[in-house]
Write a structure and sequence with these properties.
With 353 residues, the chain is α/β, with parallel strands linked by helices. It has ten helices and 16 strands. It has a seven-stranded mixed sheet, sandwiched between helices. The protein has a six-stranded mixed sheet with strand order 8-2-1-9-16-15, covered by helices on one side. The chain has a three-stranded antiparallel sheet with strand order 3-7-4. InterPro entries: FAD/NAD-bd_sf (IPR036188), Geranylgeranyl_reductase (IPR050407).
Length: 353
Amino acid sequence: MSEVIVVGAGLSGLTAAINCARAGHQVMVLERFKEVGGLPRVHPAVDATPMEPEALGRFIGVELKEPQVRPTESVGMHIYGKCWDYPGSAMFLHNIERGSRPTALDYQLWEIAKAEGVKFEFNSEFKTKDAAWLPPDSIIATGLFFEAFSDMDIPYVQLYGWVARGKKDGPTRVAGYMDTYTRDYCYYANNNGVTFGLAFGTKPVDKSLKERWMEQLATEEDVIFSAWEEHEGVAPIKRFNNPRLFWGDKILAGTFAGMQDPFFLFGVHGALVSGKIAAMAVDDKAQAYEMFTRLTRSFKYSLAVKRLVLYTLPHPLRKLALRTLIGQWSQHLDSLGFIMDIALLSVPGMKKI
């Protein structure tokens, strides 16, 4: 079988490498950093994402379990100063450690990839501006880096804010904040003793965002972060047709392919699913494209709702709409469960793979 080049040793790239190797290909992964897991300065991190681990694990061929993937025990939704608590199972949420520690999902996938014979070149000097020179059917899974999107002319929205890290043992929890200091949201999650927070917006934010959220976390969630770092990133939600599987004769994967929930920006589930689809595309482009198109069909609708609710409504109306929706849903989890099922349609592959 032919050699397959995979660019990026994050979740989607590693999943693609594993499945390509199992299909009989020789696989080489090029990674810009010295270890797996993406941007080292923000790891270890914790992502919260909806998933059904058993079904998703069968689809990608990897068992998803603790300690890398833990069910979220509780969720706190802080909407303009009022909080609702509900079980994480109501949203199928799981807390996932990211990075290069043995308890991280990236590390687990790296171990499996090596066992399957995948080769790695760390500290790679490959630049996405040279992607056209890669062999056909190379898989590009470089994640959320400005230069990759710019080099390959893929539309993106720039994000501004802070990432925060600390230590916190105890039950797995996620807390999300929507308030006047951002048009998006802030969240924190914990797993394996690591606490991670992200505060951001699609427009430059000043220090008041960090300071106000930090105060809220301390008083309402008893969470104090030991380190904050200013951070800029990107999100593939610029256009309604952002999701794309192919770039010329190359295959895209992960958030770089737009395989991301556009409303809450859940990315882990889409990264794993798209890694599998990218590997399928090496041998059967028609089947892979059909699946990719089907699993991203709701992207444009979810993005339209996000633009209306989060970016268009003034804060008083946004406050009313969000409080009404979350309040009603939290009081009637069983009878209004269909609301969350509809919302999860924007998570690529959720409940459909």
